[in-house]
Amino acid sequence: MQRVNGLHHITAIAGPAQENLDFYAGVLGMRLVKRSVNQDDPGTYHLFYADAAGHPGTDLTFFPWSHLAPPRLGHGMATEVSLEVAPGSLEYWGERLEKHGTALQPVEQRFGDTVLPLADPHGLKLALVDPARGVSRPFTAWDGSPVPAARQVRGLYGAQIWERDPAVTVTFLTTALGFRELANENGTARYGFDDVAGVVDVRAMAGPRGAWGVGSVHHLAWRVDDEAYQLAVRSQVEAAGGHATDVIDRFWFKSVYFKEPGGVLFEIATDGPGFAADEDAAHLGESLVLPPWLASHRAEIERALPVLTDPRPT
Ligand code: ZN
């Protein structure tokens, strides 16, 4: 079996794009590595925040769909995104976030990790994690960040998903995608890998089915080396009863989408070619990048999108 290699990116739904930029680039200090549009809804931005190099596993992306209502948190959705920070830096982050008016919760321990839970300006639940057990991850500090290199967000740590029937999801994670159980604590089971970053914490949740809205996670994307590897994992998904899309070319990576049995939208995405495929690596994210079939509509797309100015940490 081919396993996935941890998290590739996570995509969430935001409110107004400028506020999203101000928080993720201006306060969290991540680099805007791609400024594009939703390929299915080109009147909406697709904003990608990552480390300086845009490494797979560091990338948190947003669709600013501010017309949507808040989400209904419930089963069948991912409900929290966690980001890894450098060991010993949660005190720095607590002070910085408080200074910028971010809603913080008390620091807590989870699976031996020290965790600072918070909400972004549009209600997305985040957690900054000082991990007990480090796994090696590619990370390049961004010298344009307002956050010192030693304190910067290192990349995606994981996500929490809520499930009506966790056993079915867990079987799928292990048999179709190659996850293994890492730990179990207070009714939450942690699945992931020994050597690559990206865990999923599975919680049983009765009650209503969740529904997307501003401040919810849209999908979780898992890494695969290349297209051949991707097709092998796609076959495993189909063999496990999943319904996967064909391969879709996202230019910076190739993507296949499917829902895990509990309803959370997953993607498997290739590591390459990466964000420098269509932009100079030194100027990632500075101008609007469009897929080729939208290039002739650039003027009207730009007119419809809100103008973004440099991040202003509020
Ligand atoms: Zn994606």
Describe the overall structure:
Helices cover about 15% and strands about 35% of the residues. The chain is α+β, with helices and mostly antiparallel strands and about 325 residues long. Zinc ion (ZN) binds near residues 9, 11 and 219. Zinc ion binds near residues 9, 219 and 221.
What is the class in the CATH system?
Answer: Alpha Beta
* Structural class determined from secondary elements: alpha+beta
Mean pLDDT: 96
CATH fold name: 2,3-Dihydroxybiphenyl 1,2-Dioxygenase, domain 1
Main sheet makeup: 9 strands, mixed
Poorly predicted spans: none
CATH architecture: Roll
Query: With helices defined by DSSP (H or I, 4 residues minimum), what is the helix count?
Result: 5
Percent of residues in helices: 10-25%
**Helix/strand order:** EHEEEEHEEEEEHEEEEHEEEH
Span from first to last CA?
Answer: 48 Å
Q: How many independent structural domains?
A: 1
